[in-house]
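Tutorial handout. Part one gives the primary structure; part two gives the three-dimensional structure as tokens.
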Amino acid sequence: MTFGRPIKKSPFLRFTAAEYRRRGTQQRRDFSDKANVHRLLEDKTLGGTRLGLPTQHAVLTSTDQITPELLGERMALKFAHGWSAKGIMLLERTGEDRYFDHMALREWTLEALRAQQRAIAARFRRKQPVWIVEELLNGAQPGAVPFDYKFYMFRGQIAMVAQIDRNSSPPRMVKLDGDLKPLIQGRDYRFRPKDLQPGVPVVPRSAVMLSRWAIELAQMTDAPFVRVDLYDTDRGPYFGEFTFSSGAEFKGTVSYSDELLDRFDHLFRNAEKSLNGEPADQPENWSTLLQSLDPEVLAAHPEIPLSEYERYAYFLYNRGNLGGVRLAQAQERLLDHGGHEAITRYLSEAHRAAGLRARAPYKPATPVLRSAARTIYRKFARPTEHAS
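Part two.
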């Protein structure tokens, strides 16, 4: 696999770079406004259900407005104009005016976190600083912070999903393809080790509606590409944000093989055709299946019981590939409770593929390590000499 395609030679990369430098349309600016986007979505329904929106408790214009009363016991504090998670604190109260930040994996005093937010705001001087205080969600996957599933959308087609686990520092990331099966790090994508570390793929519990909402939200925009960030919570799909200019790609934190970029560029051109009212390819895949089914059927599709999913997902994430098998079997049992056959096939295959990728490869000890181990063994195994 070859890497290193210049931005100018990829329509997908050119678009995200242009949007990063300057947002293209007013609608994209509105959808990117974290402080106001919720009001654009609050009345949106799909299959008779509403997309979860984290409750926003306050919108602030000064760090002096960050108070213990506002932060409560558990809260998310977000700098509204940041990117790549800059200015996001996921806070849990640990004592009087003290908070553990699950993003930075450190404790802050109230004054220290105010100072940190002021320093972040100083990097974005062109905009009036705004902070959002909203509820901190609970995820269905392991960890105190819910996994972030970032759907790379080309109109109605899911090209890729970035699964981000912020319970570690740096965050753990793994990429899934459009059918929710894991891509291969080193073959399909690369990332900078100082910014990210490899994760274990976990197919979201609410994969059906999470994916269908990503499609629906992408088709609300006027863009051939948008990244739709969603959370798989213990209450179902929740909205994160729209991103038209992913900083990870623009800044080189993540790069893709030329073969994968070929796929993205093809989907980008198809999305442009769709926007122009021209016929576009309709591949046989997960995205096309979901769009062929009534949203009410999808909304009513059974899910693995939460406690069972959490148990198997925890086992899978801790390098137990059997967890993937158990999740697949649990998915297949839903056929007896009204599960759709084609949906079940896609998801059970994705669970099994995740289990295969979670299997930790055995690496034999190097000669140097074997030599060091023998030396240590001889030292501590030598009989104790007693004075006569």
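Part three, for discussion. The chain has a mean pLDDT of 90. The longest helix spans residues 258-275.
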